[in-house]
Structures are given as structure tokens and as C-alpha cells.
Amino acid sequence: MITYYDDRSVQVTSTAVRVDGRSYALADITMIWHRRGSRSWRVLVGRGALGAALAGPLVAAVFGIAVAVWLHRSTTVTIAIVGASVLVGLAVGPIADFLFEHLDRSYARGSRQLEIWARWRGQPVRLLRTGDALRFGQIYRAVQRAVERSHPARPGTRR
After folding, report:
1. On the CB side of 11, how many CA atoms lie within 13 Å of its CA?
2. Which CA distances in Å does 156 have to 127, 153, 159?
3. What does the pLDDT look like over 135-156, one tens digit per residue?
4. Where are its TM segments located (predicted)?
5. What is the pLDDT of residues 114-127, one digit of tens each?
6. Residue 73 sits in the same domain as residue 14
């Protein structure tokens, strides 16, 4: 038996697809397809918040420098304001890597609900529904490979 994908709730092998305790024999699956749901505004707002968190300190630093120049105060006050602004701008450095990692993960997870469907024993069955785009892609490709290998195409026929 070949295992194409395996995690705590989904297992795709050369004989069956098991999802949350239910098993679907590959011999009974004739077609695989997927559906995409609508975008999740919560995910998009979260990405916007991460972008604002990245840009905020830099904008504050530039704004502080502009205010320091505009005020025409003594050299000491101007240097203090510019110094504080630069420190605020530099503060984003250590945090930026952390924020970029979260932003990157949000794109890997995706912003839609994704579903894998199969025609199993003549009936359409939803095998999986997830919002994790990376996991969805891995599982979908594993199911495709397993079905292709379990139903080799005969010469002169199309699926």
C-alpha cells in the first residue's frame, strides 16, 4: 500500500481516502473535482492590519522628521525629535520579520473555503472542506494521484 498523504484527519492511500473516520474506496471513486467558496473578509482585514502594523512605525518616523523640520525649533529639540523618530522607525526592524512571517502564512492558508468533491458509487460526496489552501492543494493532488493510479486509462478511452 502506498501512502500519498497522511495527517491527523485525512489519509490518502493507494486503496482508499479516509477523512474524519469515513473511508472511501478508490475503486468506487470515478471523478474528483473541487469548489472554491467566497473570500473571507476576516482574513483580508487581518492582512490589512498586518500591513498597517508594518508601515505604521515607518510612517510615524517620517512624520516626526517632517514635524521637526517644520517646527523650526532649536537644534537640540530638532535633533531630539529626529532621533526619537528614527528610533521609532528602527523599532519595526525586529518586529518586521515576525509580521512578514504571519503575512506569508496568511497567503499560504488562503482566504477562501475550499472543498474536494468526488463521485463515489455514483453519488457526489464532499470529501473535505478547509480554509487552508496549502493543505487543500496537498490533499487534492494526493487524491488525484491515487485515483489516476487506481484507474489506469485504457487506450482509446477518455475520462
Report:
1. 14
2. 30, 9, 10
3. 999 999 999 999 988 877 655 5
4. 44-71, 77-100
5. 899 999 999 999 99
6. no
Q: Give the number of domains in the chain.
A: 2
pLDDT over 70, % of the chain: 93
Between the two ends of the chain, the Cα-to-Cα distance in Å is 24
Element (H, E) at 48: helix 41-71
Is residue 158 one of the residues assigned to a domain? no
Rounded to the nearest 10 degrees, what angle do helices 133-150 and 75-109 cross at? 20
Residue 155 lies in a domain: no
Q: Where are the beta strands (DSSP E) in 108-152?
A: 112-120, 123-130
What residues make up the domain containing 119?
Answer: 3-39+111-150
Q: Helices then strands (H, E): number in the chain?
A: 3, 7
Nearby residues of 18 by Cβ (< 8 Å), 6 or more positions away: 10, 11, 12, 24
Query: How are the residues of the chain apportioned to helix, strand and coil, as percentages rounded to the nearest 5?
Result: 55, 30, 20
